[in-house]
Amino acid sequence: MSNKKNNFTNQVSLFSLLEPEALPTPGSMDISMKLRHAISNAIQKSGLSRIDICAGIYKLTGKEVPKSTLDGWSAESRDLSNDGIDFNGNKRWGMPGEIIPAFCCVTNDWETLFIQVEACNYKALKGKDVVRARIGLLKEEITKKSHELKDLEKALVESK
């Protein structure tokens, strides 16, 4: 086995660079205000009425979301109120996880997902970074296949 192949197999994978550098710190996952802002911004930037957003969510999930509920998910004041506090003292105002992908699709805004991923110390790729990651992955695959081809050619020559 050649040194080049050993070096290649010991190379860091592109996707290992996306793994969290550290565990989340205490309190770092309190993202309620960030989510409220992201939801509010997504609604505003979408150009859709809140009723249309609710209808789009229903079309994608089959779950009815009243306009008043959507309003509650985006209102900063809800974070300061005592409404929606459960018997454990936890606030239950937030957008359910099963609604978030539909909300993102309807509004064409993915910030609410990015906030959640980044709260876990993962990196959410955005814009051109997605293309750069794909380019890096393809280059990694090409290099691997190139090494495999050279090894096969070498084995063929040695078997004569």
Short description:
The protein is mostly helical. It has helices at residues 3-9, 32-46, 50-61, 67-74, 76-80, 100-107, 111-119, 128-158.
Give an overview of the whole structure.
The protein has eight helices and no strands. It has 160 residues and is mostly helical. Mean pLDDT is 81; it is low at 1-6.
**Could you give the count of β-strands?**
0
What is the straight-line distance between the termini? 18 Å
Structural class: mainly alpha
Number of helices: 8
What is the gyration radius calculated from CA atoms? 24 Å
Helix content: 55-70%
Share of β-strand residues? under 5%
Biggest β-sheet strands, sense, barrel: none
Q: Could you spell the SSE succession in H and E letters?
A: HHHHHHHH
Q: Could you list the spans in which at least 5 consecutive residues all have pLDDT below 50?
A: 1-6
| Average pLDDT | 81
Shape: elongated
Present the secondary structure layout.
Layout: H1 3-9, H2 32-46, H3 50-61, H4 67-74, H5 76-80, H6 100-107, H7 111-119, H8 128-158
Helix pairs in contact: 1-8, 2-7, 3-6
Jot down its keywords.
mainly alpha, elongated, 160 residues, disordered N terminus
